[in-house]
Structure formats: C-alpha cells, structure tokens
Amino acid sequence: MANEPAIGDIDRLQRSSRDVTTLPEVMSRWLATVLPGGAAPEVSVESGVDSTGMSSETIILTACWQQDGQPIEQKLVVRVAPAATDVPVFPTYRLDHQFEVIRRVGELTDVPVPKVRWIEPTGNVLGTPFFLMDYVDGVVPPDVMPYTFGNNWFADAAAERQRELQDATVAVLATLHSIPDAENIFGFLAKEDFPGDTALRRHFNWVRAWYDFAVPDIGRSPLLERTFDWLDANWPHEAAARQPVLLWGTPGWATSCTATSGRWRCWTGKWSRWVLANSMSRG
C-alpha cells in the first residue's frame, strides 16, 4: 500500500506498551519477597532490548541489596511475557517452560547459559509472568531489522569471524539435541493437547494450529499451506519412530549468541522461547 513505509524506513518496531518508569519501585518491592530478610533491594532500569526478538519483552536492570552484611550489585535481565494487547506471537506463552529449560540445560550440559534466578508466574506483579536471569555482557546479531540487511557489526565482520560464530552455533545446536533421556527431562514441553501418535506428529499439528492462529491477522500463505500438504503426504515414518530430542526450533544467531571477551557464547535469553515454541520433536 502507498502509505506503508519501505523496509529501509523502518528502524524500530514497537512491541510493548509498558511504562518502564514504574518498574524500579515495583521490582524493588518484589525482590524483597524473594531475597533474604533485610536485603533492602533497590532497582534501576538500564534499558530494553529493541534489536532482537519479537515474542516478548527483555528489560535490563541493575539490582543492589545487602546479603550477609555485604553490598551486592547484580546486573539482571528480565524476560516478561507479552500482554494480550501487545500482539502476542503465540496463542499461549509459557514463560515457566522457558525458565525450566534454561535451568536444566545449565545443569546437564556445558552450554554457557546464564544463571536463572527467580520467576514470578502469576502475572500479579507486572501484569504478565516474568523471570530474572544474570546478564551476559556481549553483542548479538540483530534481527530487527535482520543482520542480512547490512549496516551492522556482523554483516561487516570478516568471513573468518562469521565462520567462527557459525561453527559455535552448530556445536551448541548439536549439544542441545544430544541431551539423553530428553523425553523425560523435558517432557513438560510435549504437545500432549494435540493429536498424534508420535512426538513429531503432535508437534506438526501444533505448528499447523499456530499457523491457523496467525491467519486472521496476517492472512494465508500459499507457500506454507503447500508445505504442510507436502509434509503430510511424505511423512517421515522412520524418523518419527526415533527417540524424541530437545529441539531448538529457530537456531538463528539473533536468537542465540553473544560474544564475551572475544569468544562466542550461547545465551538463552532469546533462544529459550523457541525451545518452548517447538518443544519435543523426533531426532
């Protein structure tokens, strides 16, 4: 349409209507309920994250409190489930699943995930559930707008540096997929509410339902519908019979990685939601 901006004119997408000016007081009061008595926490909000992710809010803050008579200062990341009025990406948003996936991956693997601290699952504090995890210093290839559009640090990096990130990402992907006994360890991610005799079939039906959820707002995609039909007609029965594994559903760099001290590191502040989105699948 003539009144729609060209891609080149878009430099920021609005994802949340939250008034962050109220957060320091609200979060300080809430932290006092999860920290030891006498902690007297004080919170300051540093920023939100606008260059990556669309499915939820990410807010960076600094918290100070007293612990065993010593002052503690900790930079934290708050992941906040989206409000229904902010155009949610998914029909439901299980932030508790994200929290638990990060925690278990950190316990079971050497994937350098951040430490998850606390979760508020009720939505009574900020209006929707949220959790806090440690901040990991570094940089992430943007996806709003995507790094492939150019004019960002990754697009301008040398080929060797880009390859380093690629190889590190594949290694993390393989580690996640090779966690043993995933069906039991991550069984809470299984799409049991959807029909199907295997994890892959239930997952497929979930993806199709997700597409149907989006159609009223964004319209139909003939390409996706042909893809669904082709997969249904060419179902991989042998693969579907294999042991389920933990699936990182969208292993894009903007949802996965940060660089700390010149080394590529994976962080789950972003990719965790895609583990949630795509949950259990066949290997």
Automatic annotation (TrEMBL):
Keyword Phosphoprotein tagged: no
Protein name: Phosphotransferase enzyme family protein
Keyword Transferase: yes
PANTHER family the record matches: AMINOGLYCOSIDE PHOSPHOTRANSFERASE DOMAIN-CONTAINING PROTEIN-RELATED (PTHR21310:SF40), AMINOGLYCOSIDE PHOSPHOTRANSFERASE-RELATED-RELATED (PTHR21310)
Alphabetical keyword list: Transferase
Signal sequence region: none
InterPro entries per the UniProt record, alphabetical: ACAD10_11_N, AGP_Transferase, Aminoglycoside_PTrfase, Kinase-like_dom_sf
Gene3D superfamilies, alphabetized: 3.90.1200.10, Phosphorylase Kinase, domain 1 (3.30.200.20)
